[in-house]
Amino acid sequence: MKSSRFGDPKEYAGLSNQKESVAMHSPGRSARFGAVLSLLGGALVICGVFFLPMVFGNGGGSATPTSEWDVATNGSSVALVLLANLLLGVLFVLGTSVASFFRRLSPGMVTWRRIIALVGLIIQGPVGFVGAIFYEFNFSPQLGAGYWLVLLGFIVMTVGTFLNRSLQIHAEGRKRT
User: Fold this and answer.
1) Which of 58, 124, 166, 173 gets the highest tally of CB atoms within 10 A of its CB?
2) Residue 53 DSSP code
3) Regarding beta strands 142-143 and 53-56, do their DSSP bridges make them parallel or antiparallel, or are they unpaired?
């Protein structure tokens, strides 16, 4: 073969193959990182809903800790339906995150994960905003760690699903070129 001013073509071909093999490993790691973030966010939501107090007191001046699940089941049926839908969405994202460790998710499934995580964040976001106003102006009831942990969990879960999808698109674009 004829050598050009850029070097030996065989060396260039070897370098090209090496770059492609490195690029093939990176989408797996990045998809796992998004899945781990989604799992972490889902775990934060579940811990915040069931195990940590959302509020201290039930509006009557008592200081007993009350979880978000207790507040939803003792309140209106609308709150219970919203919370149940949020928890079903979290379980869906958790299940698909675990599945993404073993196989690549379809683009449609990744899109549904993003939509569900975003809907959960949209529902929980105004609740967090109202809680921040209550906290800032010292209105009762006193908010517990579960209140903030659920909001943080939805933020982390949403970031994980968006990160997972954007890195998959970026990796697919690299494979084509």
Assistant:
1) 124
2) E
3) antiparallel
- Residue where the block lists tokens 């889902």: 42
What global pTM score does this model have?
0.70
User: Domain map of the chain by residue range?
Assistant: 23-176
The region, left, alpha or beta by phi > 0 then psi within -120 to 50, assigned to residue 57 is left
**Distance, C-alpha 175 to centroid of its chain:** 26
Strands 53-56 and 65-67: antiparallel
Q: Residue 124: name the closest of 150, 160, 94, 87 by CA.
A: 150
pLDDT tens readout for residues 25-66? 344 666 788 889 999 999 999 998 888 877 766 555 556 777
Question: What is the fold, at CATH topology level, of the domain defined by 23-176?
Answer: Butyryl-CoA Dehydrogenase, subunit A; domain 3 (1.20.140)
